[in-house]
């Protein structure tokens, strides 16, 4: 992390599953500027940027999470997302 500074493209591939206001994400791969990064490093990034008073440790990419804003489900397709509230 000490070498990272500024802005870099982060690409994450995985499977998002949502139902009844809860989501899960199964990571397939992640890269920063085209360089593969391990799951633990992606977890550190997500934790850092998702910290809040309700989640002081941030969000875990390995655990189910509540969908915000009354979202019940998200249906993903190529180039589109359908949000069901």
What does it look like?
This protein is mainly beta. The chain is built from one helix and six strands, in the order βββαβββ. Strands 1, 2, 3 and 4 form a four-stranded antiparallel beta sheet that branches. A two-stranded antiparallel ribbon has the order 5-6. The longest helix is centred in the middle third of the chain and has 12 residues, at 39-50. 4% of the residues are buried.
Name the descriptors.
1 helix, four-stranded antiparallel sheet, globular, mainly beta, 14% helix, 41% strand, two-stranded antiparallel sheet, 85 residues
The mean pLDDT is 90
Which structural class do the helices and strands define? mainly beta
The shape, in one word, is: globular
| Poorly predicted regions | none
The count of strands amounts to 6
Provide a concise account of the structure shown:
With 85 residues, the protein is mostly beta strands.
